[in-house]
Automatic annotation (TrEMBL), chain A:
Domain of life: Bacteria
Organism phylogeny: Bacteria, Bacillati, Actinomycetota, Actinomycetes, Micrococcales
UniProt protein name: Cytochrome c assembly protein domain-containing protein
Domain Cytochrome c assembly protein: 139-344
Pfam families xref list: Cytochrom_C_asm
Membrane topology classification: Multi-pass membrane protein
Residue ranges, annotated region (Disordered): 65-94
Amino acid sequence: MNPETLASYSNLSVYAAMLVVMLAMLAFVVDLAQTRVRTLHDASVADATAADASEAPAPVLANASSGASVGARPSSARAASDATNPADPFYPAGPVDDGTAAPVRRQWAGMGLSLFSLGTLLMLAAVVLRGLSVMRAPWGNMYEFLLTGTMVIALVFTILAMTRDLRWMGSFVSAVVLLMLGMCLVVYTDASQLMPALKSYWLVIHVSVAFVSTALFTIGAIAAALFLFKDASESLGVVPTKGLKGKLYAATPSAKALDRFSYSLHIASFPLWTFTLIAGAIWAENAWGRYWGWDPKEVWTFVIWVVYAAYLHARATTGWKIRSATWIALAGYACILINFFVVNKFFVGKHSYSGM
Amino acid sequence: MRRHGSSTKDPAAHETPAASGTTETRRPDDVQQPDIGVLGLLRWAWRQLTSMRTALFLLLLLAVAAVPGSVWPQRSVDPVRVRTYLQEHTTAGPWMDRLRLFDVYSSPWFAAIYLLLFISLIGCVLPRCRVLWRETRGGPVRAPLRLARLPEHREVEVAATPEHALETARRVLGRQRFRLRPADTSVDATGAPGQATAYVSAEKGFLRELGNLVFHLALIGVLIGVAVGHLWGWKGDVIVPATRTFANSIFSDTQGSFDTLAAGPLVDLEDLPPFIVRVNEVNVAFETGAGGSQFGQPRFFDASVTTQDSPTAAPRNQVMSVNNPLHFGSTSVFLLGNGYAPVITVRDKTGKVVMREPVVFRPQDNNYTSTGAVKVRATSPQLGFEGIFAPTISDQNLRANPVSDFPGPALPGLLLTLWQGELFPDGAPQSVYALDTSKMTQPKTAAGLPVRIALRLGETKAIAGDRGTVTFESLPRFAGLSVRYDPGKELTLACSLLALAGLIASLTIRRRRVFVRVREQDGRTLLMVGGLAKGEDVRLGDAVDRVTESILEELPRHES
């Protein structure tokens, strides 16, 4: 096949992915709409079932004299306390879903996940075809960055969703992915060769890690935003029972579980971003003769690093609430957005590869 | 965030009996501060500076302070854009300059932030090094008496004697790479190992704190590496037309030496490595296949060069490209730019050649519309031309709107505007790329217009006023080279990688303490495992489970 055909198949894949991800989003939204908002009666029933479920794995360790509370795994005690929010699908029986308490089947969410995985495969195909059409890593302009970035977000989410129950997040992630695919169309650039500065194996090292890191930060930011929503309600002590807010409240994990998830994603991503920074500096030294020159892209990569470093510090600072720390994490994500959408296009610098 | 100014009433800093005891007798206008003295004040300031919340504040401040440098042009990055900006903003510009907004990263306020941050870092990290050292030497602590109070604990009944159970626990924990506290051999009053001593204390994850400390200390190393580069490093830029030679020395004649040279304060410029680079050919290709914004984008760029490590060394042929610099010892030469250097010949009215050389025209836009200056010294009065060069331009545009349509040399055109007078007033140094017209005049045509000469490649035209002829002979390209020496970069790299390793260790390794106690009750042996973590640890419960289950695998559980 000639390059033009491959490139056009890549574009077709993008359109197909948009359609499939849109269907996935609709399925997730239907699932969200089906969430039963808890009433007082439900709560007591749910608490009881949650307690039963958590008792199940406990007998692994024989209870001694001091009764159930000693032998029971505190993790299940935690699940019981989390069960004040009965629909906590994230950690149904403690921090690790060890398979003993299978999450409830939800048809629409399952459909959403399957469709989303299909969409991910289509995006993967689009990236690979684009790469084949130009015989290089397809990371040479804004369109290609955006397409691959979107694909990596979808891929990371799909992989994460295999190991834990992330159905509550599906509608948000597919909305973000759909939005980004839409932006791909706006910044579409014809397939062509790289500019000389990008012809280096460091392109693969530096940019691929940046993609994974950004994807983790993105999913982490969604979880962080949901945490803020959930925490605001929980700390007020008022459980929203009506409308979208009520559904959303009932469908998402507890604030504590959300925060744990978001924090672990940020922790995984921060060293990757550090690596991106270092690899970028090594490449810059090779290409431009200096490892650091305060080019706008370098400045913002540094700013992002510092803000997320501040987030990690805020987590460890006594007197800083998790809420406030989470705002710092979201500020960090805002910087990532600026770094991608504003710096590439509007700031004059050596990273002007947007091809727009 | 708490302000420094308002924190004088910080109870932690000022809680003395005197202060709290005199509260009632104090009149509002007679605020009695406890006398903490100069030393106390210093100690208080130090404690504030090294506190975590100050570090956090400084981190956020650093992030904010770095932003202006990406918004406004920086002298260190692009001095020409700064000059243009200042010319366009005559009111705000000078004030912004006074605030060092065009030199953000060398400004005192930026330096103040990162230096305070590093002092805070040192003040925070050094005591922690001491603590870690003590803890590592001391080994795991004694087990608390009531393990049931620990955040994670399990109790199981085992079919074994207490001694055997403890022995097994020690073995299991050792196998799981815990550090163990040596067994306490003291006995209670009855001569048997007492409740206080019948335990196992184990700890793991010292590498977490070590990694954290290494990360922070390595950041200091990065800063030192950057400083070394600034003090002992230098960089020079030079434009070399094809077939010309560059010598890396400040002593070489004007031709072929640095256009700009910036060196750290501790550099001996007379001691530069004396290598020589002759640019044989510069090869550049631009996109012609893809349409839209990709059309005309650079696609290929390299230069074949002949180098000598010193004037007496054997010449070597090499190819350099954007990601592939030349190395002479620890000095490197990078290929950064390219453009055109049309060879221009000027003859006087007798036909004698008064100038023939490649004249560098520096690109001003992506299509290589370039500007340059032709300086004819050998005539009297001296002649000068302000020139615009376009590699691809129509006849019509060359006269009316000299802007290039494509960066490749498809239809090159040169437009020269004549000046006459003194090229080098007072012999002051001046740019090679522009005319200093302060002592020159612009001859006019009969119609009263400036004398302009449009040339195509190979053309010769007469200079109006019987001043001879000018020829556009050939069109070699030039290579923009940058010569760099940074003795700090290896240290910076090593420290960055060390910081990354420390970071990964500190974020992935968990520091946990596990204690095991055994007690007998009604003839049964009860074994309790307790776990304690430093910092946030979601998986502590799992770790305690793992330990408990491993012990149970080796000790039959009591079947009841």
